[in-house]
Design goal:
The chain has 3 domains: 84 residues, 2-keto-3-deoxy-galactonokinase, substrate binding domain (Nucleotidyltransferase, domain 5); 137 residues, Rossmann fold (3-Layer(aba) Sandwich), CATH 3.40.50; 247 residues, no CATH class. It is 39% helix and 19% strand. The protein contains 18 helices and 17 strands. The chain has a 5-stranded mixed beta sheet, with helices on both faces. A 5-stranded parallel beta sheet has the order 6-5-7-8-9, with helices on both faces. Strands 13-12-11-16-17 form a 5-stranded mixed beta sheet, sandwiched between helices. The longest helix has 23 residues. The radius of gyration is 22 Å and the shape is globular.
């Protein structure tokens, strides 16, 4: 039976920082046929780990050996994005939010005219992509043109996505291409004050990642790797989360407001899709419109590569009042950071992993949901408070990541319940959220499928153990 289903199947692959995960899905029914995983072979060639996982999967499902493969990747640091904008509290902030929604790790934000020192700093960071924004449509163009000239003269080899004032977009692109730069133009991320339009820039960044970035990271000598990759992993996961929340118009019901916490080896990502409160939005109009669906990534919170950062962040958040526990966790975290392939062998080590995951999830949710300070100048401590997520109406909280997938169900769900019911984090936590664990890693697979097979992706999401009460009260029935 599985073999017959696999005849019309697709394999969704996620090249992660620690593990490469495969999910086989029937294109006829959306049925999840099987999964496999192998440590990501960063040290040799990432296709080695993929081949090992595929061999394991095809031993159980022979027909998937010839199935189409759709892949996403966060291996090798994922997509590293620098944002160059007009005002730090306006266009640069808008570009920062767009970068996160596109699955990028924002490694640098510059605002105002790029001087020699700021340009040199940008070059030294060596981003994979630069997002160049600035000015509303028909507004100020001087800073955008000046920054285009600075980037054109800089020793940058990465592509530049131009998403600023459309009145000078052609001139900006000509300035960049005149010095051999690759410039990709798209719609303005901030066409009008208070209006954020992330979609076109998000799509452009995805295309740049596929066509210009993924093959240049030196992760594989095989031409198959860049051919398979369709998106950065966080971009694919966000697409899956959006589909989970919204459903397909006229066909399937969505779950409504959703938050997802993905605890990884290197980062902890939080995704949310929420319905804004119309009255509160009117009372607190932002210069940069709040994004009601998006992602934050915490590069210092992971249970392997960044394990030490979890302990340090938890201490700053006063989540580790016991000094002895803090010292013990710091020592255990150092072991994990020095050996990212570390697997716990005894119950005590599994308990430590669970504790690190709980701390990472709690801190990441706090950072995702609390208003944040946008500096008014580079390196400055003064600024304005922006954003903040109101998650009170979230009805579904999903835990993801290997440490939660492999933990006993009761342990994983307890971690998520405690993190989402955080009483002292300074954010609006869910009031009545059901908790589930993405054990079969369907969110990334559904996101990949949503680009070309949205109906199959929607059916795949039924494999999440979502309570029926949530599924029956989707966004289309409110």
């Amino acid at each position: 039976m599985a073999s017959m289903s696999a005849a019309r199947s697709v394999v969704c692959a996620d090249f992660g920082s620690t593990f490469t995960k495969l999910t086989a899905v029937s294109l006829d029914s959306g049925e999840l046929l099987g999964t496999a995983a192998h440590p990501t072979t960063i040290g040799t060639d990432v296709m080695d780990g993929f081949a090992a996982a595929l061999s394991d999967l095809s031993d159980r499902l022979p027909a998937v050996a010839d199935a189409e493969v759709l892949a996403c990747s966060s291996a090798g640091g994922g997509l590293r994005l620098a944002v160059v904008g007009y005002e730090r509290a306006v266009t640069a902030e808008a570009g920062y939010r767009v970068g996160l929604s596109a699955g990028a790790r924002v490694v640098h934000v510059a605002a105002g005219r790029l001087g020699a020192a700021e340009t040199a700093k940008l070059v030294a960071i060596a981003p994979d992509v630069v997002l160049l924004a600035g000015g509303t449509d028909g507004g100020n163009a001087d800073v955008l043109l000046a920054n285009a000239a600075a980037l054109a003269a800089a020793e940058l080899t990465c592509p530049i996505v131009v998403a600023g004032n459309i009145d000078v977009r052609e001139d900006v692109c000509l300035t960049l291409t005149a010095t051999g730069k690759t410039a990709i133009s798209t719609a303005n991320v901030l066409p009008r004050i208070g209006v954020l339009d992330p979609g076109p820039a998000r799509s452009a960044i995805r295309e740049v990642f596929i066509t210009h970035v993924i093959g240049g990271k030196g992760l594989s000598s095989s031409a198959d790797f860049p051919r398979l990759v369709r998106a950065a992993t966080p971009d694919a996961v966000l697409a899956g989360v959006e589909l989970l929340a919204d459903g397909l118009p006229g066909e399937t019901l969505g779950a409504g407001d959703v938050v997802v916490v993905d605890v990884g080896g290197a980062t902890t990502d939080v995704y949310s899709v929420v319905t804004p409160d119309a009255e509160e939005s009117q009372r607190h109009r932002e210069v940069v419109e709040e994004s009601w669906r998006g992602r934050t990534v915490e590069g210092d919170l992971g249970v392997r590569w960044s394990a030490s950062g979890v302990v340090e962040a938890a201490a700053r958040e006063r989540l580790l009042p016991d000094a002895a526990e803090a010292d013990d966790l710091a020592a255990a975290a150092a072991v994990r950071a020095s050996n990212p392939a570390y697997l716990p062998a005894v119950a005590a080590d599994r308990d430590i992993d669970a504790r690190l995951a709980a701390l990472a999830a709690t801190v990441a949710l706090r950072r995702h949901s609390r208003p944040h300070l946008v500096p008014l100048r580079a390196g400055g401590r003064d600024g304005v408070r922006r954003g903040g997520k109101d998650l009170r109406r979230v009805r579904l909280a999903v835990g993801s990541g290997g440490v939660l997938r492999y933990a006993p169900t009761a342990v994983a769900e307890s971690i998520m319940r405690r993190a989402t019911a955080d009483p002292e984090g300074g954010w609006r936590s869910p009031e009545a959220a059901a908790v589930v664990i993405d054990r079969d890693y369907v969110l990334a697979a559904a996101g990949l499928l949503s680009f070309a097979h949205p109906d199959v992706a929607a059916r795949l999401l039924q494999h999440l153990p979502t309570p029926s009460a949530v599924r029956m009260k989707g966004t289309f029935t409110r």
